[in-house]
Write a structure and sequence with these properties.
Blueprint lengths: L2 H19 L11 H4 L2 E12 L7 H17 L1 E9 L5 H11 L7 E6 L9 E12 L8 H6 L9 H10 L17 H12 L10 H8 L1
Length: 215
């Protein structure tokens, strides 16, 4: 093999090695589905206004019940009842009705505002809830480059992320997990009492089910 041929082969090997060392797909092309199609979670304030007066009408109570149900289902933090300073007790009636509809008294916060002369003296209820908003699907920009790089479609996983945003019960769970509820002390005491009496504490077995599994 001539010296010229050896030089050509060495140059070709160096060029090939340089090409292999170049990253064809970099870190920005390795995004997960959640990173490429993020779900944004935003807090929003839900409000309802009741006209200040001598008492709550039937329509007011129906609206208040629906608002309380919405708070118990989707609300976070306190339910704030804001009324004009020195009002005639309408705020007290509202808080009493909220307690009747299942809202704990310690979750209701009172606030006041100064009503100008001749202005409406309404009672305003408000609470915070969270909304999940997914990214838009049907984006085909950069498809040819992705095909060249043998990468997935820009819409891959987008519908799954949109379905997740629509189905999740409490979007705040996407920010941080919900706190655990209190344990059922009655079930614990019942199990300990049965154990002390020498009774069987395991669940009853279904003989027919055991036979069907065995077969």
């Amino acid at each position: 093999m001539t010296r010229l041929m050896k030089s050509i082969l060495l140059c070709a090997a160096a060029v090939a090695a340089t090409g292999c060392a170049t990253k064809f797909n970099t870190a920005e092309h390795a995004l997960s589905v959640a990173e490429e199609h993020p779900i944004s979670v935003d807090s929003q304030t839900v409000t309802m206004t009741l006209a200040s007066g001598a008492g709550l009408s039937g329509l007011d109570r129906a609206r208040l019940r629906a608002f309380a149900d919405s708070y118990l289902r989707d609300g976070h933090g306190s339910l704030t009842v804001t009324g004009p300073g020195g009002a005639d007790g309408q705020g007290d009636a509202v808080r009493a009705a909220l307690h009747e509809f299942g809202v704990p008294a310690d979750m209701v916060a009172a606030s006041s505002y100064r009503a100008g002369e001749g202005s409406a003296s309404d009672v305003i209820l408000s609470f915070t809830h969270y909304v999940a908003t997914p990214s838009a699907c049907g984006v085909w920009e950069g498809q040819r480059e992705r095909d060249f790089r043998n990468m997935r479609s820009p819409n891959f996983g987008c519908s799954a992320q949109n379905n997740l945003a629509a189905m999740i019960g409490d979007p705040r769970d996407l920010i941080e997990p919900a706190a655990m509820t209190d344990p059922d002390a009655a079930i614990r005491v019942r199990g300990v009492t049965a154990f002390r009496k020498g009774e069987i504490t395991s669940s009853e077995t279904d003989d027919e089910l055991d036979q069907s599994i065995a077969n």
